[in-house]
Design brief:
This protein has 179 residues and is an alpha+beta fold. It contains 4 helices and 11 strands; from the N terminus they run E-E-E-E-H-E-E-E-H-H-E-E-E-E-H.
Length: 179
């Protein structure tokens, strides 16, 4: 059930809709005093293929790592470590996932994702290249997650991520598994 409000650092945010549910939390579109934001509420649901330490600390650490690298990410506006919630700048636009789902080309954004991947690689990191994590706004690609991990070639863009940036068997299997 969708919460009506979520409190972050003594401020209430009216929840409008669920944007997504990932390995680390639930992301909601929320109303703030001066517009829309994204509220991420960390969860502790089990994940068979990924192990976590302290998720809220990792989100904050990864945010600063990515920001320092120059990867285009939404601003972190507020963090509540006790309640494990984050308020992010809302980046409006279509996701890469939506493009692929509608059989549209992601080619115009491949140069931008490869640039981000190169920045991450040079820092010894991978970001999560799954297409729900990328929003197009004014022809600019934004990585809207803060998750990053130590670099492993099998999880880089060319070996893993690209499999989901067009309507491949892997993409279709994922879509079918969600229904």
């Amino acid at each position: 059930m969708l919460p009506e409000y979520l409190e972050i650092s003594d401020k209430n945010y009216r929840i409008i809709k669920l944007l997504g549910h990932g390995k680390g939390g639930y992301s909601y579109l929320a109303q703030a005093d001066d517009g829309f934001v994204v509220v991420k509420a960390i969860h502790h649901e089990p994940c068979d293929y990924y192990s976590f330490g302290n998720k809220i600390e990792a989100e904050e650490r990864d945010y600063y790592r990515l920001k320092e690298l120059g990867i285009r990410i939404p601003e972190m506006l507020r963090i509540d470590r006790e309640k494990e919630r984050i308020v992010k700048q809302c980046i409006e636009g279509q996701t890469i996932f939506e493009l692929v789902l509608n059989h549209k080309s992601t080619d115009p954004y491949l140069e931008q994702i490869r640039y981000m991947a190169d920045l991450a690689y040079k820092a010894g990191l991978n970001i999560d290249y799954f297409p729900t994590n990328f929003v197009i706004n004014n022809d600019l690609l934004w990585y809207i997650d803060y998750k990053c991990n130590d670099y492993m070639p099998e999880w880089n863009f060319e070996n893993w991520g690209i499999r989901y940036w067009s309507y491949t068997r892997e993409f279709d299997d994922h879509v079918r598994s969600q229904n």
